[in-house]
């Protein structure tokens, strides 16, 4: 049913599959989801969901000492048919896709002043992407953004994070029945930035959701994508690409909750690491509830370690409460360059330096193609080339 492999190179890779009557995924959380920060104790690093995170580097986002004192410039560019509104916390559209699942996300919800709601009307098919540019100008900021697609609407959204900021935010994606949404979230922060964010997607009946998360910059980046289904026939594809450099901590914690029948999910995250104390964490949780008959799901995490001193923690988890499914599995692998690939290329006259670059580009090629936007793909490949200059 599942494949799990581990080639340890400064890594810790584990996985589990459980067939259960009650949710063990839920019990790994120290508290139930809530909008109220008071419902979450201050983490100390011993909790399951915090054991990999360097709390001392979160600049107070986890214990309530980080007061909103910074500046973040936000710019939304969208076709005329798209509505962009600024609303209060009590707006009915805020919080529909899911509640915060940890103290940092709850703190963000309790601390933002106004939320941004971006609405694509039903049956609208956008020919140009919605672009959201967020540029930090120092200090601490909190935010909340809702992207809502009406029934049978189709859209592509690009969210770009740059600059320096200590940022905590919640992002919601609400897809109506038959809607199709692709989201590309780019974390290209300055090296001193801290970014924690929970992404909640609510996928309607027969709707299709694709998320591409690209993480390069920041001192600490901790993202929590989550998917729920509002009806049968929904599909979710979660792709991720990260390049973790010396001293950086990049953490991606995913949860797909199959709670409706005949839904599908596919998760594929790939990362490359280089430099002393580069640390990547990938947690992939998939829960197939008793009512979710006909589910088809698979999750994959692969990591390529380029130098000594880097560490990977990769933990896929799959829990199944019904045997009436199409398929379910997971795989995780961490390793160095494939010497056979290098030998093959060098035997044909390619230098070792260029051969290594080709191997890394090939490692990421499949995920880069999922973006579907030439300007973002070109920028991503250029960024990979810049990162590789340090090692190859």
TrEMBL record:
Residue ranges constituting the SUF system FeS cluster assembly SufBD core domain according to the UniProt record: 136-363
Q: Which domain of life is it from?
A: Bacteria
InterPro entries assigned to the protein according to its UniProt record, in alphabetical order:
Fe-S_cluster_assembly_SufBD, SUF_FeS_clus_asmbl_SufBD_core, SUF_FeS_clus_asmbl_SufBD_sf, SUF_FeS_clus_asmbl_SufD
Q: Which Pfam families match?
A: SUFBD_core
Q: Which GO terms describe its biological process?
A: iron-sulfur cluster assembly
What protein family does this chain belong to? Belongs to the iron-sulfur cluster assembly SufBD family.
- The name on file for this protein is Fe-S cluster assembly protein SufD
User: What organism does this protein naturally occur in?
Assistant: Streptomyces armeniacus
Taxonomic lineage? Bacteria, Bacillati, Actinomycetota, Actinomycetes, Kitasatosporales
Report which gene this protein is encoded by: sufD
